[in-house]
């Protein structure tokens, strides 16, 4: 009596012509696309695109994952905390921070934000934080009616 061997199943491989096409490359992200007429600066790992608008500026600020103001900007700016007011729209990412008096904030996109001068902040998670900011240089806090440093109402 002859033993029966199990039949070897041969599966055909797909030929190159029958493979699914690779997904098309994602279109360029309009949130990060070049801004015509804007000036680009990089400082402390942060990319800032600045466009003049009326008597102020609109900035797109891209904070990379792992960014923390006290780690990356403090040595450059030479102040204990960020003394710039931030008024704008957090379009992507999540940012946490503290003020000198212990107050904290935690904002996740999409959200309008106002940060008083006198804060430390950092990006939370693996995604960059992208802030669209309305800016008046050193007069931002004054122009938007904010205190010169964080205060309780």
Return residue spans where pLDDT drops below 50 for at least 5 consecutive residues: 14-26
Beta-strand proportion: 35-45%
- Spatial ordering of strands, largest sheet: 1-2-3-9-4-7
Task: Supply the helix-strand structural class.
Answer: mainly beta
- The CATH class of the domain at 38-143, by name, is Mainly Beta
Structure description:
Helices cover 8% and strands 37% of the residues. By secondary structure, it is mainly beta. The protein has a domain at 38-143: Jelly Rolls, CATH 2.60.120. A six-stranded antiparallel β-sheet has the order 1-2-3-9-4-7, with no helix packed on it. A three-stranded antiparallel β-sheet has the order 6-5-8, with no helix packed on it. The model is unreliable at 14-26 (pLDDT under 50).
Write a brief caption for the model.
This protein has three helices and nine strands; from the N terminus they run E-E-E-H-H-E-E-E-E-E-E-H.
Describe the SSE topology.
Layout: E1 39-43, E2 46-53, E3 56-63, H1 69-72, H2 74-77, E4 86-92, E5 94-99, E6 104-108, E7 111-115, E8 119-123, E9 129-135, H3 140-143
Antiparallel strand pairs: 1-2, 2-3, 3-9, 4-7, 4-9, 5-6, 5-8
